[in-house]
Design brief:
By secondary structure, this protein is of the alpha+beta class. The protein has 18 helices and nine strands. The strands form three sheets. Strands 3-4-7-8 form a four-stranded mixed sheet. A three-stranded antiparallel sheet has the order 5-9-6.
Length: 418
Amino acid sequence: MSEIPINKQKIINDPVYGFIGLPFEIVFDLFEQPYFQRLRRIRQLGLTHYVYPGANHTRFQHALGAAHLMDSAIEIIRSKGHEITDEEAEAASIAILLHDIGHGPFSHALEHSIIEGTNHENLSLLFMNRLNVLYNGRLDLAIQIFLNKYHKNFLHQLVSSQLDMDRLDYLRRDSYFTGVTEGVVGSDRIIKMLNVKDDQLVVDIKGIYSIEKFLVSRRLMYWQVYFHKTVISAENLLVQVLRRAKYLSEKGADLFASPALSYFLKNKVEARHFDLTGPVDVLDLYSKLDDNDIMVSAKVWMNHDDKVLSMLSTMMINRNLLRIEMKNKAFDSDRVQKTRDYLAEYFKLSLDDTRYLITEGSISNYAYNSLDDNIKIMMKNGDCIDIAEVSDMLNVTVLSRTVKKHFLCYPKGIVFPF
């Protein structure tokens, strides 16, 4: 009996863009892969739903949205007389579809808590290489574009730059699901204004106002959503839960966890351990981790004998988050030490254990980096000028400045005598 052919020209109803399609059959095949389907179970914005209840969208949705924008951008650039072969279009679609496949549970929140010395971009590349073997080298060109090793640089800029399809999708999507209207960007308008000059992605002069709005929206979204102080508090609490669980596991404590999570808690995993020649397929184990592993475990850890783990897990599950203070300068070391001393006495803990209850750190952001892969505006005479020089409305110098804030987190409901 002959095998029934599969219809790979799927249409997906996306809440942001409406009906979107999968432009190539191999994109459908990658879409069906368990490595990619895992992204359904990873929230795009970590614990941001603790602040904005609607922010439950996933990396899966974002990846599909970015691939849709890539398809639109390629069509527009082709219509302006620039050659993009079907093979290149397919590769660019694959590169953007898989650009976030390396994200772990809760996206950026646990970026460096499970594996040391690497990031989600490097892990995405490992997944792409693994899939490339499975598809007999069909991803060769996509990987070259992803790594900016292909001779058409503008294709890489569509995947990763200060005006890539990744940013255009996440700003619009995150704005939609959080309800923060200040983050709405005119992605359709921006894409229609894209062009190529001297192998560089540029924007036609008619699109300058949309780019100005894009930069302002990005700045507002970072401080109003991504770096909202309660989000910082929640994600730092989550990191401390995992740190304590890992500390106990390495000491031999019996902790409830899925087999995959248990491995990463009990072992110090570094980038080098993803070598296929090792005794354990670490990448495959990593691919079995998602938000559910962490939250289900934390629910069980609420009743663990370890006082610190139990306290932290209960706080996270019940959203009794850490109090957070933010300011422009680093916190005084004497004040931090006094807080630790008081917490040790208050909770009857060792001073060493208080390092899980008080977190000190900093966050920084800029809306536009004039020293990076600049956003170029193409004038009517064909000249290309940096947005920082051609804009007559925005002080791009201000948007380019890195803003840094320091934070201190500690348990609520305590009146300190100092």
